[in-house]
Design brief:
One of its GO terms (molecular function) is ATP hydrolysis activity. There is one protein chain. With 351 residues, the protein is of the alpha/beta class. Helix content is 38%, strand content 19%. The chain has 14 helices and 13 strands. Helix 4 links the parallel strand 4 and strand 5. The chain starts with 6 loop residues before the first strand and ends in a 7-residue tail after the last helix.
Length: 351
């Protein structure tokens, strides 16, 4: 299938340099026509047309067919004639650089992302340290990808050592959070996917193992917004001590899974985490781990619906320590839980 690129029409080299830089920030490639006559083969099929004010008059003289998605761009001060030129070329608006750079980045990114999947976000949080939240988040993402769901696994814990380790892919080529942290605004999921380690239908945004640094909430917002448009499922591993970026992820969650060890200390710890989650998200469900307490006692104690029980998986820790991804054959507890969740437990919207 032919992929069409945004079209830029200008013979102003300074303006073109700006537009090339802005397109690169959006993660898209563009076609360039230095003269109005050269634009005709691209005019109809380009998802977006950006016209430099320097060629607006000559372009209008060629009587291009009417179309949506035409922008007139200028680098100069206010010019009374610019709106006449805007109308003449059929543009929807005039963007003045550098003030409108952010808007133009978003326009480029959106134009190259016509496919919208409306992916759901699932957050996974441990009610107590060591409850297995990161492992469950990883397995949910793996199982979803094996079911041919386009999936993004997001590590929201800057102190977690990198969720890519749980996949056995800590040496995979691609960006981690430090390389994505400056992203904000609307970005293309295709560009994000190209930058990150990707394995079939699974893309991973992991922390790193250098000096820890906070994840900006603006970057989390940009990543999750792009993934919502480009994915079927987004799984976020959320730390117990909530950061602004974690709160941003929770605010977008269709459901948040709180893993609770079935013992007194596990329930007490989860009871401290739960109110913090509920400040940012509505649909919290408990998943209980093995212990001495029954699910009904935990449900009454936390006053939160119980989603399911996740048994221990034999030899899992040894498997992970050998640098291997979690074994997810159909008979394993993790695989059974993940398949059941993906089949029947993901709500269409928070309740």
């Amino acid at each position: 299938m032919t992929t069409h690129r945004p079209l830029v029409i200008t013979d102003d080299q300074d303006l073109l340099d700006d537009l090339l830089r802005i397109a690169a920030a959006a993660g898209v490639e563009i076609d360039v026509a230095h003269a109005a006559a050269h634009a005709r083969p691209f005019w109809t099929h380009a998802p977006l047309v950006v016209v430099g004010v320097d060629v607006a008059d000559t372009l209008a003289a060629t009587c291009p067919p009417p179309r949506q998605g035409v922008l007139l761009v200028t680098r100069g001060a206010d010019d009374p004639s610019v709106w006449r030129r805007c109308v003449a070329v059929g543009a929807v608006t005039v963007l003045t650089l550098p003030e409108a750079e952010r808007r133009l980045v978003e326009e480029f990114a959106e134009a190259c992302e016509p496919e919208t999947r409306s992916g759901e976000t699932v957050c996974v949080v441990g009610g107590r340290g060591g409850s297995g939240a990161s492992v469950l988040a990883t397995c949910l993402a793996l199982v979803a990808a094996r079911r041919k769901m386009r999936t993004l696994l997001v590590d929201a814990d800057p102190l977690g050592g990198g969720i890519d380790v749980l996949l056995g892919e800590e040496h995979a080529v691609g960006a981690r959070w430090p390389g994505i942290a400056e992203r904000e605004g609307r970005v293309s999921y295709a560009a994000l996917q190209d930058a990150l380690p990707t394995f079939g239908d699974l893309t991973v945004l992991s922390g790193h193992r250098g000096a820890p640094s906070a994840i900006p909430p603006e970057a989390m917002r940009a990543v999750l917004g792009a993934a919502h448009r480009g994915c079927d499922l987004i799984v976020v591993d959320v730390p117990r001590h909530l950061t602004p970026a974690a709160a941003e992820a929770l605010s977008r969650a269709a459901v948040t899974l709180l893993l609770v060890p079935s013992d007194v200390r596990g329930v007490l710890a989860a009871a401290q985490v739960l109110p913090q989650l509920q400040k940012h998200t509505q649909c919290v469900r408990t998943v209980t781990r093995p212990g001495t307490l029954t699910p009904d006692i935990i449900t009454r104690s936390l006053d939160t619906p119980h989603l399911g029980f996740l048994p221990d998986q034999r030899n899992l820790a040894d498997h992970l320590d050998r640098g291997l991804a979690p074994p997810l054959t159909p008979q394993t507890p993790l695989a059974r839980f993940c398949h059941a969740f993906l089949t029947g437990s993901l709500p269409e919207e928070p309740s």
